[in-house]
Amino acid sequence: xxxxxxxxxxxxxxxxxxxxxxxxxxxxxxxxxxxxxxxxxxxxxxxxxxxxxxxxxxxxxxxxxxxxxxxxxxxxxxxxxxxxxxxxxxxxxxxxxxxxxxxxxxxxxxxxxxxxxxxxxxxxxxxxxxxxxxxxxxxxxxxxxxxxxxxxxxxxxxxxxxxxxxxxxxxxxxxxxxxxxxxxxxxxxxxxxxxxxxxxxxxxxxxxxxxxxxxxxxxxxxxxxxxxxxxxxxxxxxxxxxxxxxxxxxxxxxxxxxxxxxxxxxxxxxxxxxxxxxxxxxxxxxxxxxxxxxxxxxxxxxxxxxxxxxxxxxxxxxxxxxxxxxxxxxxxxx
Length: 334
Prior knowledge:
Blueprint: E1 13-21, H1 25-36, E2 45-51, H2 58-64, E3 69-72, H3 79-89, E4 92-99, E5 102-104, H4 108-118, E6 122-131, H5 136-141, E7 150-152, E8 160-162, H6 163-169, H7 180-191, E9 195-206, H8 213-233, H9 243-265, H10 268-290, H11 296-308, H12 310-323, H13 325-329
Parallel strand pairs: 1-2, 1-4, 2-3, 6-9
Antiparallel strand pairs: 4-8, 5-9, 6-8, 7-9
Helix pairs in contact: 8-9, 8-12, 9-10, 9-12, 10-11
């Protein structure tokens, strides 16, 4: 797990907050303060900040925020490495990982501790993430993080984990380019027989932090690369995580290409049929979303996002596969 280091001596605590960040200066103090000010009552806790090699004033901000321990900062690290470094120094029975662009809801940690204490079968618990940007686009994107209650297949890195379960797994996998969290959860469920749970309550506010179509495209391409890598990792298991989703994304890309060809080369009637069919699919998603209480604008944006995002996601999957073709040609594996 990351760098070779040993925990400092001291009494154990109930919860360790591990905040990770890379150039998170504008949002880091609020993130650290939300952990420090959480309503934990008699639950003992500590706050660790792990810096991923920031070039801004993130480390100075962490020092001024009464952080118990500051780690990293010496070189560039990815999120999994940052979390593992924090895990190695954590003294808590439970570890709440937080990204530096998030603020924790005041009542979340206590609820999460109580849940894990009473559910020994669970390795991690998460809650709802609320997007801080109030625009219609971000409200539409937030619908992918819909609140729910119950057992789930995987959670994100920002969740409360049982430290002993993470240590048995060797921490977050550092040899995965994208999607280390779902892969870790897959291993926790399939190798240790533990479960992941989502509470129907607010866990954190989040700043997604992209500003245009280019960022939107990049985010979904990376999502596609994540789908492909995790599907390849889990393809030989009893539960082939994301294999169906990955194939479905590629099928949607094929459908988009076929529709474009029919519109470009078809006659008037064929074009009208294709456009009408596409409009019908979007209208169905719009009405379904509207019934959830969303405004017309948010429902329309979400309907378009649901189907348009398949293009960059599938492109990301193809990029991931193309990068591994030379290895396959040499007789290697995915």
